[in-house]
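2024-03-11 09:14:02 DEBUG pipeline.ingest accepted 1 chain
2024-03-11 09:14:02 DEBUG pipeline.ingest length=182
2024-03-11 09:14:03 DEBUG pipeline.predict start
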Amino acid sequence: MKLVCDGGANSQETKKGTMAIVLMGVGGAGKTTLGQQLSAALGTGFIDADIFHSPRSVEKMSRGIPLDDSDRAPWLRRVNTEILRSPARTVLACSALKRAYRDILRTGTGTGVWFVHLDVDEAEVRRRLAARKGHYFPEALAGSQFAALEPLQPDERGVTLDASRPLDELLADTLAAAPSAC
């Protein structure tokens, strides 16, 4: 587990609170599953960023065509708007694959976004996606997700967790590492 509580900021910024805990990673990493558990444990709202994709983007992904930056930009702006409109603490599942995407999510929040990067290898993601039913995101997109992924940088607030571990362990580690515990 790699933890950065304040992204280089002073401890006063960390104590101001976090508007959103963003579970990030490739499709199939377990963002929604952990996010729902985390929001229940914290007694907060949960937002799955997938609901903000345009119909065109959903159709594109369902055909196995990766989204590009121009597809993602309006989606990320919509997600950022939801972060800004959310209560004091909200849990959000969002791929946030690139640093530039995470920067959009942080816009207007000060230090109010904290990331949990669910890191899992491509073989496990492909297995999970192949087994997943009723979702538009196919296993064929796994490679493009890993190609786009930029792990959290040392100056970004958050933690990286091995998402191949059991859900209860991921939840406990996330709760222990969340900013209120920093």
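2024-03-11 09:14:41 DEBUG pipeline.report The longest helix spans residues 69-85.
2024-03-11 09:14:41 DEBUG pipeline.predict end
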